[in-house]
Structure formats: structure tokens, C-alpha cells
Amino acid sequence: VRVRLVSPPPVSIKPKTPPVPSNSCQICHQEFPKRLLYKKHMLTHLGDKHFACTYPACKETFYTQSNLERHVRTIHLRGSHSFVCTFPNCGKTFTRNDSLKNHRVKHFPNMIMKCPYVDCEEKFRVRSTYHAHVKRHRTEKQQASTMYVCVLQNCQYTTSNKASMKQHLTKVHDYKQ
Predict the structure, then answer these.
(1) Positive or negative, the Cα torsion across 125, 127, 128, 132?
(2) Which of 74, 78, 117, 154 is the most exposed, fewest CB within 10 Å of its CB?
(3) What is the CATH number of the domain that holds 72?
């Protein structure tokens, strides 16, 4: 069991200066939460459109491969069954990739994934559902193993929930965060 001591932060004398965003465009001053989005954006100012649509009579070009793929899906393949099951003698088609993935499971009826946690008997055929289930177990286990201990005024309050500790500090000790 991990124990986290919760105490008020030290008093700061210097005023805090706001952090300078590192993903801010120097040309149009737009800000981006992620570096990857910033880099893609910079292509619109500095890059060439290297990705061209190959459909007949379509002259569209794009800065990124993913933008070209989205264009093809939404403009040229809209409503078409472009995802095909390659299992022998099947050939069933789908409009969405996730529908194809869920379909493929039917070809392997013995491929069942059992939850690895001892007290759980859940079984799954769809990999994404299995992983989501196991992740919930891990999250619950982590939350149960972390304890927050109040160290203000010899208080004995403990909890495994961070939000509960914040509420306790505010209501019992009148601590403003």
C-alpha cells in the first residue's frame, strides 16, 4: 500500500509567471495542445502538398497522408463497402473497419480471452472489449492501493480517493486550494 501525505503547498513569495506555450505558431499565433498537431499545422505555412488524390478527375492535394486518406474515405468511398474480410470463402464487406474487426472474431469461435484476475470469470471474443475490461481492474486496484493521509492539525483522516481528500481539506480544515 502506497501512502501519500497531503499537506498544503509552501507559500510562494514571487508571483508566478505564466508558462510560454511551446506549441504556438509564430506565423498566425495559433496554439496547439500537442506537439504533433503543431507540426501538422506548420505544414500549412511551410510545407508542400505532396499527397495527391489518384481518383480520376480529382485534383485535390494534401499536406499529410492521413488527410488524403480521410478525403478518399469521405468523398470517394462514402457509403461503399471498402473493408473486405479476407478469410477464405467469406468476402463479406463492411463500411467501417471496426465492423470488419468484430466480424473476423466469428471465424475463430475458440478464440476466447479470459480475464486474468483470479476472482473474475469474464470471457471475451472482442480484443478491445477484453482490454477495456482488464484496464478497469488495473484502475480499481491502483485506486485501492493508494492512500491519502491528511497531515493537518493532527488529523487522522485517510482515504483512497483523491477527490475525497480535497473535499475533506476544504470542509474540515477550511483549506483553499
Answers:
(1) positive
(2) 154
(3) 3.30.160.60
CB 92 within 8 A of CB 84: yes
Residue 97 maps to a domain = no
In a domain, 67, yes or no: yes
Number of domains in the chain: 2
**158, part of any domain:** yes
The backbone torsions φ and ψ at residue 32, rounded to the nearest 5 degrees and listed phi first, read -130, 135
Look up cell 505564466; give the residue. 18
What range defines the domain where residue 71 resides? Answer: 24-78
Q: How far apart are CA 168 and CA 171, in angstroms?
A: 5
DSSP calls for 68-90: HHHHIIIIISTTS--EE--STTT
Whole-structure pTM over 0.90, yes or no? Answer: no
Spell out the per-residue pLDDT of the chain, length 177, in tens.
Answer: 555 666 655 555 555 555 555 678 887 888 888 888 888 888 777 777 788 888 888 899 888 788 888 888 777 777 666 778 888 888 888 877 788 888 887 887 777 788 888 788 888 877 788 888 888 887 776 666 667 788 777 788 887 777 888 888 888 887 776
Look up residue 15 and give its three cell numbers: 508571483
Whether 6 and 149 have beta carbons less than 8 Å apart is answered as yes
